[in-house]
Design a protein that fits this description.
452 residues, mainly alpha, 76% helix
Amino acid sequence: MELVIVLLVAIAFVVLSTSKFKIHPFLALLGAAFLTALLSGLPLSSIAKTISGGFGGILGYIGLVIMLGTIIGTILERSGAAITMADTIIKLLGDRFPRMTMSLIGYLVSIPVFCDSGYVILNSLKRAMTKRMGVSAVGMSVALATGLYATHTFVPPTPGPIAAAGNLDLTNNLGLVIGLGLIVAAATALAGLAWANYASSRYECGEDDEVTESYETLKARYGKLPTAAQAFSPILIPIVLICLGSIANYPSAPLGDGTLKTALAFLGSPLNALVIGLFIALPLVKTSEDKPTKGEALTAQVSDAISTAAPILLITGAGGAFGAVLKATGVGPQLGETLSTLGIGLFMPFIVAAALKTAQGSSTVALVTTSALVAPMLGDLGLATEMGRVLTVLAIGAGAMTVSHANDSFFWVVTQFSKMSVSTAYRAQTIATLIQGLTGIVTVYILSLILL
């Protein structure tokens, strides 16, 4: 019981330090690792080794994958590929279902691009479509935001889900995380869309009275846009390769044990697949007046990607250090045994992630911290199988979207770019993320009844 109390103190430390005292999550998680190690009585001589080993272990496992995914996303963002994706979907769906179109655009764009950046990129498109189709700006804003949010918390190569998968030893089976993540994300996107339809007739925002630029003007700002094949390939091809690699590595050997399996296992390794995706994305790099050569433009975009990924890498590493300390203390089996008697299973990581998300605002921190926390106790929760680990990642993802409010940067991106009042944003956007999170965990639970 003493170890459980130590764990609760550590969690309270992370929540209070990040939410109330605004300490960076990296320092909060690192501090929690030292605090847990000292309070639990780990030998002083082993504390530094345990923490540094956990930090380096998770980054060696997943760090390059996060970095490559961020570089690809930055290239797609700067080249106008997100606009091409949106344009392709609009041509396929037409003007009959504007909010569904907006949600689907967000759902696809947020796989390689952070939801905050995705909203900024697509906001002008959303405004142009809102005026062109004569529909509610609030409904369109919520549809876009919830579509972006859905894949952001469930589908690699977004860094949060990748880090959680790494903490739960699933890096070599990301294909299964992607496949089931797309299903759960689709359910949450549909739930968000349903709420967007409801909100569209009930709420208004400043954007409703604005005159905005045309869709054609928006596209012209990017110059020559990539083709649909160029825009989708850098992310879809790695995802397909990762999924095929997971199938090839499946214990039943569905593709045999010969050359085909070896080749697909190599190409489907997340690191190798994202290297291929990066090479596919390189022709999209655009020069500018201040970066007149492809090399200079690429270097600038890689530098921007490193700046974006660095905090995530540090948080992920600190989460790995915290997880290593928890594993060394043996708190996992003790807490797992207690929780298993309650029969809450997958709802336990969901509740922890939701509490962390609501308290400190970052979905990535909630994903990393919760996955590090539950990793040592999966066996006691009955979730130590490959499928159990995958579903645990998705349960954590559902918690990590519950809920987005004033301490979440995405909440303010949606609020400010849509010119919503804070009270309207709470009713429209925050409630939408609550509905999405609950839909997510219900979907994961239904999948567990079928797959476990």
